[in-house]
């Protein structure tokens, strides 16, 4: 142990920072894998409860080992590549989806300054917006490469949907940037700290933007009622119809990690991150995970409650409702910041 300490002390500051970053990546990557497995179980159990069913309850106590059983099953299933498919693009699409999903989470802080965050970028918001845009390429690649009309339709739907709702998603962040005066996510969290607890959070001050974010984020990760790219009643399984075995598992992993990411981002940007809802209670990473869990439950609750949109309704709602509302609220926020209205001062 002493030798390890001496070796660590002998490293240069740059080398120490490098190994600390590697350790953070390893820890967060493994936590995300575990959270992905847990979410597949939790969603099935909660949906079953909402629909008066039992859900998985055979594999292990209360069915908790069901995700492991599913993983083993998918690992041993046959890998099938359709005849006429573009082999390299077909194989690359799931990898692109997973890489984009995991890269997005790198700038999200989970606790106080410097805790549980891989990269604290000065332009964290811009990084998120850039990386989240890459996910659509994986879905378009998967839809096109399979040489199947259903996958192609799913890919085209996803491209139109994600480009449309990404605009509203980005606009919902503009008011936060005005109030915090920074693109850094840590700064946006600390800008919500004050003597009024949760009344200082941007979900209250920027309530219209918060609603726009929740809706646009749901569409961005293709969750019900915006799951048109999959739409099993119309397109079999949409863009991943032809995928099997671990490639299918990677696409599913990307979807759940994206859902985890938008819940974590929403917690930091609108719900005060690790800040306490009451002034008398101390700030703690525990608050982050409580709010984070509530947002994940919200996404599951939507799936068990709402029917799927028609595609024309989806596009109409994105362009004619969300984008105008987000734009109007940016103008209102700018006016209130300029006037120095309490709650809208930088």
Care to describe what's here?
The chain has 346 residues and is mostly helical. It is built from 14 helices and no strands. It has helices at 2-10, 13-50, 66-76, 87-104, 124-132, 135-145, 149-180, 185-190, 202-205, 207-220, 232-235, 245-270, 285-305, 311-339. The chain is globular.
List keywords for this structure.
14 helices; 346 residues; 67% helix; globular; mainly alpha
Q: Gist?
A:
This protein has helices spanning 2-10, 13-50, 66-76, 87-104, 124-132, 135-145, 149-180, 185-190, 202-205, 207-220, 232-235, 245-270, 285-305, 311-339. It is mainly alpha-helical.
Any idea what the shape is? globular
Low-confidence spans: none
Would you count the extended β strands for me? Answer: 0
What is the radius of gyration computed over CA atoms, rounded to a whole number of angstroms?
Answer: 21 Å
Structural classification: mainly alpha
**Sheet with the most strands?**
none
How many domains?
A: 1
Strand content: under 5%
Query: How helical, in percent, are the residues?
Result: 55-70%
Q: State the distance separating the first and last CA atoms.
A: 49 Å
Secondary-structure element pattern, one letter each: HHHHHHHHHHHHHH
Overall average residue pLDDT? 82
The number of helical elements comes to 14
Helix and strand arrangement:
Layout: H1 2-10, H2 13-50, H3 66-76, H4 87-104, H5 124-132, H6 135-145, H7 149-180, H8 185-190, H9 202-205, H10 207-220, H11 232-235, H12 245-270, H13 285-305, H14 311-339
Helix pairs in contact: 2-12, 2-13, 3-12, 4-5, 4-6, 4-12, 6-7, 7-10, 7-14, 10-12, 10-14, 12-13
């Amino acid at each position: 142990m002493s030798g390890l300490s001496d070796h660590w002390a002998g490293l240069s500051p740059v080398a120490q920072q490098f190994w600390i970053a590697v350790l953070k990546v390893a820890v967060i990557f493994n936590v995300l894998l575990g959270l992905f497995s847990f979410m597949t179980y939790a969603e099935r159990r909660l949906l079953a409860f909402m629909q008066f069913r039992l859900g998985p309850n055979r594999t292990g106590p209360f069915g908790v080992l069901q995700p492991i059983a599913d993983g083993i099953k998918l690992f041993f299933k046959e890998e099938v590549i359709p005849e006429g498919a573009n082999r390299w693009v077909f194989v690359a699409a799931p990898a692109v989806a997973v890489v984009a999903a995991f890269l997005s989470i790198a700038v999200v802080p989970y606790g106080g300054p410097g805790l549980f965050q891989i990269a604290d970028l000065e332009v964290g918001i811009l990084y998120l917006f850039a990386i989240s845009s890459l996910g659509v390429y994986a879905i378009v690649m998967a839809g096109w490469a399979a040489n199947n009309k259903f996958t192609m339709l799913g890919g085209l739907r996803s491209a139109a949907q994600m480009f449309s709702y990404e605009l509203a998603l980005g606009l919902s962040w503009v008011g936060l940037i005005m109030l915090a005066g920074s693109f850094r996510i840590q700064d946006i969290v600390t800008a919500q700290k004050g003597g009024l607890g949760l009344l200082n959070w941007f979900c209250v001050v920027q309530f219209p933007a918060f609603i726009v974010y929740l809706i646009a984020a749901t569409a961005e990760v293709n969750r019900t009622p915006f799951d048109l790219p999959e739409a099993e009643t119309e397109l079999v399984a949409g863009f991943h119809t032809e995928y099997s075995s671990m490639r299918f598992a990677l696409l599913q992993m990307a979807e759940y990690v994206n859902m985890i990411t938008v819940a974590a981002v929403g917690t930091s940007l609108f719900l005060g991150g690790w800040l306490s809802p009451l002034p008398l209670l101390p700030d703690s990473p525990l608050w982050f995970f409580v709010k984070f869990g509530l947002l994940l439950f919200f996404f599951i609750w939507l799936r068990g409650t709402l029917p799927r949109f028609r595609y024309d309704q989806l596009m109409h709602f994105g362009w004619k409702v969300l984008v105008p509302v987000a734009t109007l609220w940016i103008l209102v926020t700018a006016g209130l910041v300029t006037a120095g209205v309490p709650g809208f001062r930088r």
